[in-house]
Amino acid sequence: MKVRTPCHLCGKELARKDSMLRHLRDMHGKTGDVPLDDQKDYCVLWNDQGKKVYGCLLCGEVFTRSSSVGRHKQEVHDKIRFPCPHCSKMFSRKSDVAMHCRIIHRQDESGDG
């Protein structure tokens, strides 16, 4: 069974990246460029004010920076998690683990405390 992703604007479920882009363009007036390779996690769109934004190809959520789309994909779609080496807490970012260790366990990343 294919995973269907809902449009973040109207909830319509779509199965493919190109379908989401076509839907965003045709139904919501969002215009943009489809990436030429499958390595990118985003498409380039222009918002209502004519500013360049980046749309997630999996769910259509829009960001002001392309790097934010990559982080969003990792956290939301890939569900990558990083464990704390001292307790059972899990985090979606390595930087959050480091901050947690400094604040909660009073240790830096090297384990010195």
UniProtKB/TrEMBL annotation:
SMART domains membership: ZnF_C2H2
GO molecular function: DNA-binding transcription factor activity, RNA polymerase II-specific; sequence-specific DNA binding; zinc ion binding
Alphabetized UniProt keyword annotations: Metal-binding, Repeat, Zinc, Zinc-finger
Record InterPro entries: Znf_C2H2_sf (IPR036236), Znf_C2H2_type (IPR013087)
Signal peptide: none
One Pfam family per UniProt: zf-C2H2
Cellular component GO terms, alphabetical: nucleus
Domain of life: Eukaryota
Organism: Paralvinella palmiformis
Domain C2H2-type: 5-28, 54-82, 82-110
Protein name (Swiss-Prot/TrEMBL): C2H2-type domain-containing protein
